[in-house]
Amino acid sequence: MDASNFSDDIQETSNSEIEAFFCSAPPLKDAAEIKMKLKDFVGRQSLHSESGKATRVVCVTSGGTTVPLEQRCVRYIDNFSSGHRGAASTEYFLKAGYAVIFLYRRGTCQPFCSSLPDDPLLNCFDCPDMRNVQVQPSYAEDVVNAVGRHQAAITGGTLLKLPFTTIFEYLQILKETAVSMKDLGSNAMFYLAAAVSDFYVPWETMTEHKIQSRSGPLDLRLAQVPKMLSVFRKDWAPRAFCISFKLETDTRILLEKADMALRRYNMHMVVANELSTRKEEVVIVTASGSKIVRRDMTKAGGEVEEPLIEVIVSEHSIYIETSTP
Ligand code: PAZ
Q1: How confident is the model at residue 120 (pLDDT cuts 50, 70, 90)?
Q2: HEC string of the chain?
Q3: 58 lines ligand 1 (CB under 6 A)
Q4: Quick one: which of 97, 109, 129, 192 is 20 to 30 A from 226 by CA?
Q5: DNA/pantothenate metabolism flavoprotein C-terminal domain: which residues (predicted)?
């Protein structure tokens, strides 16, 4: 399964295929709440434009989508992504003054939590008696830092977190998000780092109950998830600055595929990365050429997302300046 139906394997998708996908998808359980949260969050950014400048808003997608095999899902196909790229990038965008809509896979890495142990998180805490919980001294600084920054971003209205699990949820929430950000024009950005399923079982052909093993080997036929990037650029987010990601394990085809995605889907940038070196370096592919971005090895804890977001923010500024209002 390739990570991104939002990217590369070039095929035209008709609007009717896309409509059919959304019509047959199980409706979001909390659609009304998500819409309201988006409306409030985006509305708040437009109001809070200090110094006359509109706030920039970026939607960061993060983590992999699942493809359920049963409607009452016991088994599913997953897409690789720890969510580290999305979580770290969110922190750098916030630092750069952006408001961030963090569209993330449940259970994957979260902003501000990289220095906390995830296995088990309870190692951070002590419980001297049943009424008191204390943070282990060795984690105190990290916990205070994480909780403080997270709380400040949420209560300050600069971070909105929306979780997804399945491909159905992801695409529906992304569409809602794009539509809600439309009026932000060129101040809106999409940073599509999520690893999105290319193949799926259409809901109406999916068995309701757990697949039984007694009938022997399982034959699965997966339909192709409609390629949505064209319609995303044309209809959902026509004025936003759009960045997609391309992951490959074969470096020989990586740049060619990133370049193809850039041109075919009219992206402003495609960030190309190879699985084993993705934390060390990425290549930014744009219409005017490509640029390697590496993490700063001389800096303790240096992450490739830091210089990456720096380049992106500066390109976004140029885009805003040169866009017609
Ligand atoms: O989530 P992570 O930090 O483990 O990995 C990030 C990534 C490789 C999923 C991301 O950089 C990426 O390339 N996402 C898109 C994958 C694709 O559509 O090809």
Answers
A1: confident
A2: CCCCCCCCCCCCCCHHHHHHHHHHCCCCCCHHHHHHHHHHHHHHHHHCCHHHCCCCEEEEEECECEEECECCCCCEECCCCCCHHHHHHHHHHHHCCCEEEEEEECCCCCCCCCCCCCCCHHHHEEEEECCEEEECHHHHHHHHHHHHHHHHHHHCCCEEEEEECEHHHHHHHHHHHHHHHHHHHHHEEEEECCECCCEECCHHHCECCCCCCCCCCCCCCCEECCCCHHHHHHHHCCCCEEEEEEEECCHHHHHHHHHHHHHHCCCCEEEEEEHHHCCCEEEEEECCEEEEEECCCCCCCCCCHHHHHHHHHHHHHHHHHHCCC
A3: no
A4: 109
A5: 181-299
